[in-house]
Design brief:
Elements (H helix, E strand, L loop, with lengths): L9 H31 L6 H21 L5 H28 L7 H11 L3 H10 L5 E2 H8 L3 H13 L3 E6 L2 E6 L4
Antiparallel strand pairs: 1-3, 2-3
């Protein structure tokens, strides 16, 4: 049986209050510096350039696959590897920022749980799985890997394509899908 929480003594409460205030102030300063360094480095401003580069490279990779052009495979592999590593770095921070963004929500645990639940939804499962694939894949491959029904998968892929998160191309009479990394 869980221990009943006791009300802290006045001296403990003052120490705890001071500690909470110091921690919050330190975190606010650290996050402000982090945000400023991202902005000063051109992180936000570079998003459009990376979006254009991503669209160009995805289309060129799909063309190369369809034409069986392999001369740039090594570079595409290096780009994909670096992109996965950058994604892992960024997503870990993004997940933390989503949780921190809920600090002033009426009920913090519910907001955090909703964020974690969203990661289990088919849309996120599809995006995460596609992001790990070295080349475009068929709907059959996605369905088999994620154990989704055709109806759910097709609806999600259509929505993801319309949202610009997934690119679809036809090869050998079938549709292939690839994730467009959000940068």
């Amino acid at each position: 049986m869980p221990k009943a929480t006791r009300k802290p003594r006045a001296s403990d409460a003052a120490a705890l209050s001071a500690n909470v205030a110091r921690t919050a102030e330190t975190a606010a300063t650290v996050l402000a510096r982090f945000k400023a360094s991202l902005l000063q480095s051109g992180f936000a401003a570079g998003r459009d350039a990376y979006r254009r580069m991503t669209e160009t490279l995805l289309n060129q990779r799909l063309w190369a696959l369809n034409q069986k052009f392999e001369a740039a495979d090594e570079q595409f592999a290096r780009i994909a590897s670096d992109a996965r590593e950058i994604y892992e770095l960024l997503i870990s921070y993004a997940d933390l920022m989503v949780k921190l963004a809920t600090l002033m929500a009426p009920v913090v645990p519910a907001a955090v749980q909703a964020s974690e639940r969203a990661q289990k939804e088919p849309r996120h499962q599809i995006l995460n799985w596609l992001a790990q694939q070295p080349r475009p894949v068929s709907g059959t491959q996605i369905r088999a890997a994620l154990q989704l029904s055709s109806t759910v998968l097709n609806a999600q892929l259509r929505d993801l394509e319309q949202d610009g998160r997934v690119v679809r191309t036809a090869a050998a009479g079938r549709d292939l899908y690839a994730a467009k990394p959000s940068i």
